Amino acid sequence: xxxxxxxxxxxxxxxxxxxxxxxxxxxxxxxxxxxxxxxxxxxxxxxxxxxxxxxxxxxxxxxxxxxxxxxxxxxxxxxxxxxxxxxxxxxxxxxxxxxxxxxxxxxxxxxxxxxxxxxxxxxxxxxxxxxxxxxxxxxxxxxxxxxxxxxxxxxxxxxxxxxxxxxxxxxxxxxxxxxxxxxxxxxxxxxxxxxxxxxxxxxxxxxxxxxxxxxxxxxxxxxxxxxxxxxxxxxxxxxxxxxxxxxxxxxxxxxxxxxxxxxxxxxxxxxxxxxxxxxxxxxxxxxxxxxxxxxxxxxxxxxxxxxxxxxxxxxxxxx
Length: 319
Fold this sequence. Notes:
Elements: E1 5-9, H1 19-28, E2 32-37, H2 44-53, E3 59-61, H3 64-69, E4 76-79, H4 86-96, E5 99-103, H5 111-123, E6 128-131, H6 138-145, E7 155-160, H7 167-173, H8 175-184, E8 196-205, E9 208-217, E10 220-228, E11 238-242, E12 245-251, E13 258-261, E14 266-269, H9 272-288, H10 299-315
Helix pairs in contact: 1-2, 1-9, 5-10, 8-10
């Protein structure tokens, strides 16, 4: 399999973006990061320096149009902009026949919008992938808890410290617990787990919100609680609990090495972003070599429907 030639859309660190780290991990996984674009001419040089700090040297452009007009032989776009600009990047990828990796959430519009985009990618035989990395932590979590994957958990809780205030907290954070729930309920290789939500409610909690709902899947039912607190601390705390057994992500501020800490033991945690991007790169390479792309209308679309339902609960008003 060859090296996918990828262009980065929004490769900087605006709003805590992951652009430089996604670029680093794409290159480490064997992709060829050919070029990047920003939204303004004055941000090209700082973004080039950020990418260089991660060992990625490539050509820079001040707009998506300029990037696409250059004859660079691109095969995919990595769309790393804030969510409001995702659709522009996705439609540009479709128009040029390019595969796409898009930062989460893929869209903040109606779920039908995601469904239509995913169907369009599928009709062209193009891969459409979303950057949801938390499921890559599950293997370590099972080891920390001394369990083997199997039964759907009866309860699931997660605590996160996203950026922003109000609705933006949910927009930034909810893809993480939703993708974990999909994985726990059996979604694999882009296929949906056929989940439904019930009894969803959101209430103020600390400086953010507590979300409670029930997830029903083909193999069981899970009571869910998600706690979002935009505390200004670093490294940002994050944890989740399966049937009451909790694992906390720890980050060494000096080395940025990660670990998962449970009630009785702690284990090193391979960077989930690095793991996820390696899987994305392998998928793109296989697709470019003639393999069928993963089903774009599966788990990604289901996640969009679940996210839209939870955001609608928020929009309907807090008690």
